[in-house]
Amino acid sequence: MRNMMKKSGLFVLALLVAAGAFAQNGSGTISFTLDEAQQYAIEHNRTLANASLDIQKAQANKWKAIAGMLPQVTAATSYSNMMGYKMDLGQMQISMPPYATFNLTTNIALSGAQIISIGVANISRKMADLTLQKSEKEIANQVETIYFSALVTEETLQLLKQNLESMQKLYKMTQKSVDVGVAEQTDADQLLVQVATMENTINTTERALEMVYNTLRLQLCLEEDAQIVLTQGLDDLLNLTAASSLLDERFDIERNYDYQLLKQNTELTRKQIALTGWTNGPTFSIYHQYSGRHNFSNEPTMNMTPPNMIGAQLNIPIFTSGKMTATMKEARLNYQKQLNTLADTELSLYVQHHQLVYNLRSALEKYDIQKQNVDVAQRVFDNISKKYEQGVASSLDVTNSGTNLLNAQSNYVQALFDIIDAQVALEQLLNK
Fold it and tell me: Is the pTM of this model over 0.70?
Protein backbone atom coordinates (compact mmCIF):
# COMPACT_ATOMS: atom_id res chain seq x y z
CA MET A 1 0.00 0.00 0.00
CA ARG A 2 1.40 3.37 -0.95
CA ASN A 3 2.07 5.61 2.03
CA MET A 4 0.42 8.82 0.96
CA MET A 5 0.88 10.95 4.04
CA LYS A 6 4.34 10.26 5.53
CA LYS A 7 7.34 12.01 3.97
CA SER A 8 10.93 12.34 5.01
CA GLY A 9 12.25 15.78 5.87
CA LEU A 10 14.60 15.69 2.90
CA PHE A 11 11.78 15.01 0.48
CA VAL A 12 9.61 17.80 1.89
CA LEU A 13 12.51 20.24 1.63
CA ALA A 14 13.19 19.24 -1.96
CA LEU A 15 9.50 19.57 -2.82
CA LEU A 16 9.30 23.03 -1.29
CA VAL A 17 12.37 24.12 -3.23
CA ALA A 18 10.83 22.80 -6.43
CA ALA A 19 7.56 24.55 -5.69
CA GLY A 20 9.41 27.79 -4.99
CA ALA A 21 11.27 27.57 -8.28
CA PHE A 22 8.00 26.95 -10.06
CA ALA A 23 6.39 29.95 -8.40
CA GLN A 24 9.31 32.16 -9.45
CA ASN A 25 8.91 31.13 -13.07
CA GLY A 26 5.15 31.73 -12.97
CA SER A 27 4.14 29.05 -15.41
CA GLY A 28 6.51 26.32 -16.54
CA THR A 29 7.13 22.60 -16.27
CA ILE A 30 6.82 20.76 -12.99
CA SER A 31 7.32 17.04 -12.47
CA PHE A 32 5.48 14.84 -10.00
CA THR A 33 5.55 11.29 -8.79
CA LEU A 34 2.20 10.17 -7.41
CA ASP A 35 3.28 10.73 -3.81
CA GLU A 36 4.69 14.16 -4.66
CA ALA A 37 1.46 15.17 -6.40
CA GLN A 38 -0.61 14.05 -3.42
CA GLN A 39 1.61 15.90 -0.95
CA TYR A 40 1.63 19.03 -3.12
CA ALA A 41 -2.17 19.01 -3.34
CA ILE A 42 -2.51 18.60 0.43
CA GLU A 43 -0.11 21.48 1.09
CA HIS A 44 -1.78 23.89 -1.35
CA ASN A 45 -5.47 22.96 -1.15
CA ARG A 46 -7.62 25.83 0.16
CA THR A 47 -10.31 23.49 1.46
CA LEU A 48 -7.73 21.91 3.74
CA ALA A 49 -6.60 25.37 4.82
CA ASN A 50 -10.17 26.11 5.90
CA ALA A 51 -10.36 22.76 7.72
CA SER A 52 -7.18 23.65 9.57
CA LEU A 53 -8.71 26.99 10.54
CA ASP A 54 -11.76 25.12 11.88
CA ILE A 55 -9.45 23.23 14.24
CA GLN A 56 -8.04 26.51 15.50
CA LYS A 57 -11.56 27.88 15.93
CA ALA A 58 -12.59 24.80 17.92
CA GLN A 59 -9.51 25.19 20.12
CA ALA A 60 -10.35 28.86 20.65
CA ASN A 61 -13.91 27.94 21.66
CA LYS A 62 -12.54 25.47 24.20
CA TRP A 63 -10.38 28.13 25.84
CA LYS A 64 -13.28 30.54 25.65
CA ALA A 65 -15.34 28.11 27.74
CA ILE A 66 -12.48 27.64 30.21
CA ALA A 67 -11.88 31.39 30.45
CA GLY A 68 -15.53 31.87 31.40
CA MET A 69 -14.86 29.96 34.64
CA LEU A 70 -11.80 32.03 35.56
CA PRO A 71 -11.78 35.41 37.33
CA GLN A 72 -12.97 38.32 35.22
CA VAL A 73 -11.45 41.69 36.12
CA THR A 74 -12.99 44.95 34.99
CA ALA A 75 -11.57 48.44 35.55
CA ALA A 76 -13.53 51.67 35.20
CA THR A 77 -12.72 55.32 35.77
CA SER A 78 -14.80 58.49 35.56
CA TYR A 79 -14.58 62.25 36.10
CA SER A 80 -17.38 64.46 37.50
CA ASN A 81 -17.61 68.23 37.91
CA MET A 82 -20.71 69.83 39.56
CA MET A 83 -19.66 73.35 38.54
CA GLY A 84 -19.12 74.69 42.10
CA TYR A 85 -22.35 73.35 43.57
CA LYS A 86 -22.50 73.01 47.36
CA MET A 87 -24.92 70.80 49.24
CA ASP A 88 -27.08 72.92 51.60
CA LEU A 89 -27.83 71.10 54.89
CA GLY A 90 -29.46 74.08 56.64
CA GLN A 91 -26.85 75.27 59.13
CA MET A 92 -23.94 74.04 57.04
CA GLN A 93 -22.89 73.52 53.43
CA ILE A 94 -20.84 70.68 52.03
CA SER A 95 -18.65 71.37 49.04
CA MET A 96 -18.98 69.15 45.96
CA PRO A 97 -15.64 69.66 44.23
CA PRO A 98 -14.65 68.00 40.95
CA TYR A 99 -13.55 64.41 41.49
CA ALA A 100 -12.42 61.30 39.70
CA THR A 101 -13.30 57.71 40.59
CA PHE A 102 -11.60 54.43 39.91
CA ASN A 103 -13.32 51.04 40.25
CA LEU A 104 -11.71 47.60 40.00
CA THR A 105 -14.13 44.66 40.02
CA THR A 106 -13.16 40.98 40.18
CA ASN A 107 -15.93 38.52 39.45
CA ILE A 108 -16.15 34.72 39.24
CA ALA A 109 -19.32 33.00 38.03
CA LEU A 110 -19.67 29.22 38.04
CA SER A 111 -22.37 26.95 36.64
CA GLY A 112 -22.79 23.40 35.45
CA ALA A 113 -23.38 24.69 31.91
CA GLN A 114 -19.84 26.09 31.80
CA ILE A 115 -18.34 22.72 32.71
CA ILE A 116 -20.44 20.92 30.09
CA SER A 117 -19.44 23.54 27.51
CA ILE A 118 -15.80 22.54 27.92
CA GLY A 119 -16.74 18.93 27.08
CA VAL A 120 -18.70 20.15 24.05
CA ALA A 121 -15.70 22.20 22.90
CA ASN A 122 -13.45 19.14 23.22
CA ILE A 123 -15.78 17.11 21.01
CA SER A 124 -15.91 19.92 18.45
CA ARG A 125 -12.11 19.97 18.43
CA LYS A 126 -11.98 16.21 17.77
CA MET A 127 -14.55 16.52 14.98
CA ALA A 128 -12.59 19.33 13.33
CA ASP A 129 -9.42 17.23 13.48
CA LEU A 130 -11.22 14.20 11.99
CA THR A 131 -12.68 16.37 9.24
CA LEU A 132 -9.19 17.58 8.34
CA GLN A 133 -7.83 14.02 8.20
CA LYS A 134 -10.79 12.89 6.10
CA SER A 135 -10.33 15.82 3.70
CA GLU A 136 -6.62 15.03 3.33
CA LYS A 137 -7.45 11.41 2.56
CA GLU A 138 -10.11 12.38 0.02
CA ILE A 139 -7.80 14.82 -1.75
CA ALA A 140 -5.01 12.25 -1.87
CA ASN A 141 -7.44 9.71 -3.37
CA GLN A 142 -8.72 12.23 -5.89
CA VAL A 143 -5.19 13.03 -7.00
CA GLU A 144 -4.44 9.30 -7.26
CA THR A 145 -7.50 8.74 -9.46
CA ILE A 146 -6.65 11.69 -11.72
CA TYR A 147 -2.99 10.66 -11.91
CA PHE A 148 -3.98 7.14 -12.99
CA SER A 149 -6.55 8.55 -15.41
CA ALA A 150 -3.83 10.58 -17.11
CA LEU A 151 -1.55 7.54 -17.36
CA VAL A 152 -4.32 5.32 -18.72
CA THR A 153 -5.34 7.94 -21.26
CA GLU A 154 -1.73 8.35 -22.38
CA GLU A 155 -1.43 4.58 -22.82
CA THR A 156 -4.64 4.64 -24.83
CA LEU A 157 -3.11 7.26 -27.10
CA GLN A 158 -0.05 5.09 -27.64
CA LEU A 159 -2.21 2.11 -28.59
CA LEU A 160 -4.27 4.20 -30.98
CA LYS A 161 -1.19 5.67 -32.63
CA GLN A 162 0.24 2.19 -33.13
CA ASN A 163 -3.02 1.10 -34.73
CA LEU A 164 -3.05 4.19 -36.90
CA GLU A 165 0.49 3.55 -38.06
CA SER A 166 -0.40 -0.02 -39.07
CA MET A 167 -3.59 1.07 -40.83
CA GLN A 168 -1.81 3.90 -42.69
CA LYS A 169 0.78 1.40 -43.87
CA LEU A 170 -1.95 -0.88 -45.22
CA TYR A 171 -3.73 2.02 -46.86
CA LYS A 172 -0.59 3.25 -48.63
CA MET A 173 0.14 -0.27 -49.85
CA THR A 174 -3.44 -0.67 -51.11
CA GLN A 175 -3.43 2.70 -52.84
CA LYS A 176 -0.24 1.77 -54.67
CA SER A 177 -1.93 -1.46 -55.77
CA VAL A 178 -4.89 0.55 -57.04
CA ASP A 179 -2.57 2.85 -58.95
CA VAL A 180 -1.03 -0.12 -60.80
CA GLY A 181 -4.45 -1.68 -61.40
CA VAL A 182 -4.19 -4.79 -59.20
CA ALA A 183 -6.66 -3.65 -56.48
CA GLU A 184 -10.07 -2.00 -56.32
CA GLN A 185 -10.44 1.65 -55.28
CA THR A 186 -13.17 0.61 -52.81
CA ASP A 187 -10.59 -1.42 -50.89
CA ALA A 188 -8.41 1.66 -50.48
CA ASP A 189 -11.44 3.79 -49.60
CA GLN A 190 -12.49 1.39 -46.84
CA LEU A 191 -9.03 1.57 -45.31
CA LEU A 192 -8.99 5.34 -45.70
CA VAL A 193 -12.22 5.59 -43.71
CA GLN A 194 -10.66 3.39 -41.05
CA VAL A 195 -7.61 5.70 -40.96
CA ALA A 196 -9.84 8.77 -40.62
CA THR A 197 -11.81 7.12 -37.85
CA MET A 198 -8.64 6.36 -35.91
CA GLU A 199 -7.33 9.88 -36.43
CA ASN A 200 -10.60 11.28 -35.08
CA THR A 201 -10.42 8.92 -32.11
CA ILE A 202 -6.86 10.05 -31.41
CA ASN A 203 -7.90 13.72 -31.54
CA THR A 204 -10.79 13.05 -29.16
CA THR A 205 -8.50 11.17 -26.78
CA GLU A 206 -5.94 13.98 -26.85
CA ARG A 207 -8.65 16.47 -25.89
CA ALA A 208 -9.79 14.14 -23.12
CA LEU A 209 -6.20 13.92 -21.88
CA GLU A 210 -5.97 17.70 -21.74
CA MET A 211 -9.17 17.78 -19.67
CA VAL A 212 -7.60 15.29 -17.26
CA TYR A 213 -4.52 17.48 -16.91
CA ASN A 214 -6.72 20.55 -16.38
CA THR A 215 -8.46 18.69 -13.56
CA LEU A 216 -5.08 17.82 -12.08
CA ARG A 217 -3.95 21.45 -12.33
CA LEU A 218 -7.09 22.50 -10.49
CA GLN A 219 -6.53 19.87 -7.80
CA LEU A 220 -2.91 21.00 -7.36
CA CYS A 221 -3.82 24.72 -7.49
CA LEU A 222 -1.47 25.27 -10.44
CA GLU A 223 -1.77 27.87 -13.18
CA GLU A 224 -3.78 26.92 -16.23
CA ASP A 225 -0.75 26.88 -18.54
CA ALA A 226 1.53 24.94 -16.19
CA GLN A 227 3.04 21.90 -17.88
CA ILE A 228 2.80 18.80 -15.70
CA VAL A 229 5.11 15.84 -16.21
CA LEU A 230 4.14 12.55 -14.57
CA THR A 231 7.34 10.71 -13.71
CA GLN A 232 5.74 7.36 -12.86
CA GLY A 233 4.04 5.02 -15.29
CA LEU A 234 1.30 2.45 -15.03
CA ASP A 235 3.84 -0.35 -14.67
CA ASP A 236 5.30 1.42 -11.63
CA LEU A 237 1.99 2.11 -9.91
CA LEU A 238 -0.50 -0.57 -10.92
CA ASN A 239 -0.07 -3.16 -8.19
CA LEU A 240 -2.62 -5.89 -8.74
CA THR A 241 -1.22 -7.89 -5.82
CA ALA A 242 -1.90 -5.00 -3.43
CA ALA A 243 -5.35 -4.55 -4.92
CA SER A 244 -6.11 -8.25 -4.47
CA SER A 245 -4.95 -8.15 -0.85
CA LEU A 246 -7.70 -5.64 -0.11
CA LEU A 247 -10.26 -8.34 -0.82
CA ASP A 248 -9.24 -10.18 2.36
CA GLU A 249 -8.78 -7.05 4.48
CA ARG A 250 -10.96 -7.05 7.59
CA PHE A 251 -13.25 -4.04 7.78
CA ASP A 252 -12.57 -2.18 11.02
CA ILE A 253 -15.45 0.27 11.13
CA GLU A 254 -13.79 2.25 13.92
CA ARG A 255 -11.12 3.37 11.41
CA ASN A 256 -13.67 4.78 9.00
CA TYR A 257 -13.72 8.58 9.12
CA ASP A 258 -17.45 8.89 8.42
CA TYR A 259 -18.24 6.53 11.27
CA GLN A 260 -15.83 8.30 13.64
CA LEU A 261 -17.39 11.68 12.82
CA LEU A 262 -20.90 10.34 13.33
CA LYS A 263 -19.92 8.82 16.69
CA GLN A 264 -18.50 12.14 17.83
CA ASN A 265 -21.63 13.89 16.62
CA THR A 266 -23.73 11.40 18.61
CA GLU A 267 -21.66 12.12 21.70
CA LEU A 268 -22.13 15.84 21.05
CA THR A 269 -25.91 15.31 20.94
CA ARG A 270 -25.72 13.44 24.26
CA LYS A 271 -23.78 16.33 25.77
CA GLN A 272 -26.53 18.66 24.62
CA ILE A 273 -28.92 16.93 27.03
CA ALA A 274 -26.71 17.77 29.99
CA LEU A 275 -26.05 21.26 28.62
CA THR A 276 -29.77 21.88 28.28
CA GLY A 277 -30.34 20.74 31.86
CA TRP A 278 -27.59 22.89 33.32
CA THR A 279 -28.54 25.96 31.27
CA ASN A 280 -31.45 26.44 33.67
CA GLY A 281 -29.50 25.19 36.67
CA PRO A 282 -28.07 27.11 39.63
CA THR A 283 -25.46 29.79 39.02
CA PHE A 284 -23.09 30.91 41.76
CA SER A 285 -21.06 34.08 41.54
CA ILE A 286 -18.74 35.97 43.89
CA TYR A 287 -17.19 39.38 43.44
CA HIS A 288 -14.87 41.92 45.01
CA GLN A 289 -14.93 45.63 44.18
CA TYR A 290 -12.41 48.28 45.04
CA SER A 291 -13.47 51.91 44.66
CA GLY A 292 -11.12 54.86 44.86
CA ARG A 293 -11.94 58.60 44.70
CA HIS A 294 -9.75 61.63 44.18
CA ASN A 295 -11.06 65.18 44.80
CA PHE A 296 -9.53 68.01 42.82
CA SER A 297 -9.90 70.38 45.80
CA ASN A 298 -8.80 70.65 49.44
CA GLU A 299 -12.25 71.72 50.58
CA PRO A 300 -13.94 69.32 53.05
CA THR A 301 -16.51 67.14 51.36
CA MET A 302 -18.44 63.92 51.86
CA ASN A 303 -17.65 60.47 50.45
CA MET A 304 -20.13 57.68 51.18
CA THR A 305 -18.58 55.06 48.88
CA PRO A 306 -16.73 52.26 50.74
CA PRO A 307 -13.30 51.46 49.27
CA ASN A 308 -13.77 47.67 49.37
CA MET A 309 -16.84 45.54 48.95
CA ILE A 310 -17.32 41.80 48.58
CA GLY A 311 -20.47 39.89 47.71
CA ALA A 312 -21.85 36.54 46.60
CA GLN A 313 -24.97 35.53 44.75
CA LEU A 314 -26.73 32.24 44.07
CA ASN A 315 -29.44 32.07 41.40
CA ILE A 316 -31.75 29.06 41.46
CA PRO A 317 -34.50 28.79 38.84
CA ILE A 318 -37.64 27.47 40.56
CA PHE A 319 -40.50 27.44 38.07
CA THR A 320 -40.41 27.69 34.26
CA SER A 321 -44.02 26.71 33.46
CA GLY A 322 -42.89 23.43 31.85
CA LYS A 323 -40.45 25.06 29.43
CA MET A 324 -37.50 23.22 30.94
CA THR A 325 -39.28 19.86 30.76
CA ALA A 326 -40.16 20.37 27.09
CA THR A 327 -36.61 21.46 26.23
CA MET A 328 -35.12 18.41 27.93
CA LYS A 329 -37.56 16.13 26.11
CA GLU A 330 -36.57 17.65 22.79
CA ALA A 331 -32.87 17.12 23.56
CA ARG A 332 -33.46 13.46 24.48
CA LEU A 333 -35.48 12.86 21.31
CA ASN A 334 -32.67 14.38 19.21
CA TYR A 335 -30.22 12.03 20.92
CA GLN A 336 -32.42 9.02 20.17
CA LYS A 337 -32.65 10.07 16.52
CA GLN A 338 -28.88 10.34 16.39
CA LEU A 339 -28.52 6.84 17.87
CA ASN A 340 -30.83 5.50 15.14
CA THR A 341 -28.78 7.29 12.48
CA LEU A 342 -25.58 5.83 13.91
CA ALA A 343 -27.02 2.29 13.84
CA ASP A 344 -28.25 2.72 10.25
CA THR A 345 -24.89 4.12 9.16
CA GLU A 346 -23.02 1.24 10.76
CA LEU A 347 -25.17 -1.26 8.87
CA SER A 348 -24.85 0.65 5.59
CA LEU A 349 -21.05 0.82 5.92
CA TYR A 350 -20.83 -2.96 6.31
CA VAL A 351 -23.08 -3.39 3.26
CA GLN A 352 -20.96 -0.86 1.37
CA HIS A 353 -17.84 -2.83 2.26
CA HIS A 354 -19.31 -6.02 0.81
CA GLN A 355 -20.32 -4.15 -2.35
CA LEU A 356 -16.90 -2.52 -2.81
CA VAL A 357 -15.16 -5.88 -2.33
CA TYR A 358 -17.48 -7.33 -4.97
CA ASN A 359 -16.74 -4.40 -7.30
CA LEU A 360 -12.98 -4.80 -6.93
CA ARG A 361 -13.10 -8.57 -7.42
CA SER A 362 -15.21 -8.13 -10.56
CA ALA A 363 -12.88 -5.41 -11.85
CA LEU A 364 -9.83 -7.65 -11.37
CA GLU A 365 -11.52 -10.54 -13.15
CA LYS A 366 -12.64 -8.26 -15.96
CA TYR A 367 -9.12 -6.86 -16.31
CA ASP A 368 -7.61 -10.33 -16.74
CA ILE A 369 -10.16 -11.17 -19.43
CA GLN A 370 -9.79 -7.88 -21.28
CA LYS A 371 -6.01 -8.07 -21.18
CA GLN A 372 -6.18 -11.49 -22.84
CA ASN A 373 -8.78 -10.15 -25.27
CA VAL A 374 -6.44 -7.33 -26.35
CA ASP A 375 -3.60 -9.79 -26.93
CA VAL A 376 -5.87 -12.00 -29.04
CA ALA A 377 -7.34 -9.08 -31.00
CA GLN A 378 -3.86 -7.72 -31.68
CA ARG A 379 -2.64 -11.08 -32.98
CA VAL A 380 -5.74 -11.43 -35.16
CA PHE A 381 -5.24 -7.94 -36.57
CA ASP A 382 -1.57 -8.59 -37.29
CA ASN A 383 -2.42 -11.94 -38.91
CA ILE A 384 -5.18 -10.44 -41.09
CA SER A 385 -2.87 -7.60 -42.06
CA LYS A 386 -0.18 -10.04 -43.23
CA LYS A 387 -2.76 -12.07 -45.16
CA TYR A 388 -4.04 -8.87 -46.74
CA GLU A 389 -0.52 -7.96 -47.83
CA GLN A 390 -0.24 -11.42 -49.37
CA GLY A 391 -3.59 -11.05 -51.11
CA VAL A 392 -5.45 -13.79 -49.21
CA ALA A 393 -7.63 -11.46 -47.11
CA SER A 394 -9.96 -8.62 -48.08
CA SER A 395 -9.96 -5.01 -46.97
CA LEU A 396 -13.23 -5.74 -45.19
CA ASP A 397 -11.42 -8.37 -43.11
CA VAL A 398 -8.80 -5.79 -42.18
CA THR A 399 -11.46 -3.23 -41.29
CA ASN A 400 -13.38 -5.67 -39.13
CA SER A 401 -10.26 -6.87 -37.32
CA GLY A 402 -9.20 -3.26 -36.78
CA THR A 403 -12.61 -2.42 -35.33
CA ASN A 404 -12.44 -5.46 -33.07
CA LEU A 405 -9.00 -4.39 -31.90
CA LEU A 406 -10.24 -0.90 -31.08
CA ASN A 407 -13.16 -2.34 -29.12
CA ALA A 408 -10.86 -4.71 -27.24
CA GLN A 409 -8.49 -1.86 -26.39
CA SER A 410 -11.41 0.31 -25.28
CA ASN A 411 -12.69 -2.46 -23.01
CA TYR A 412 -9.18 -2.95 -21.64
CA VAL A 413 -8.86 0.74 -20.82
CA GLN A 414 -12.26 0.71 -19.13
CA ALA A 415 -11.16 -2.32 -17.10
CA LEU A 416 -8.14 -0.34 -15.91
CA PHE A 417 -10.39 2.54 -14.84
CA ASP A 418 -12.69 0.12 -13.03
CA ILE A 419 -9.79 -1.34 -11.03
CA ILE A 420 -8.54 2.10 -10.05
CA ASP A 421 -12.00 3.34 -9.04
CA ALA A 422 -12.81 0.18 -7.08
CA GLN A 423 -9.43 0.10 -5.33
CA VAL A 424 -9.50 3.77 -4.33
CA ALA A 425 -13.09 3.48 -3.08
CA LEU A 426 -12.25 0.43 -0.96
CA GLU A 427 -9.09 2.05 0.40
CA GLN A 428 -11.15 5.11 1.32
CA LEU A 429 -13.66 2.95 3.21
CA LEU A 430 -10.93 0.99 4.99
CA ASN A 431 -8.91 4.15 5.64
CA LYS A 432 -5.78 2.51 4.20
Answer: yes
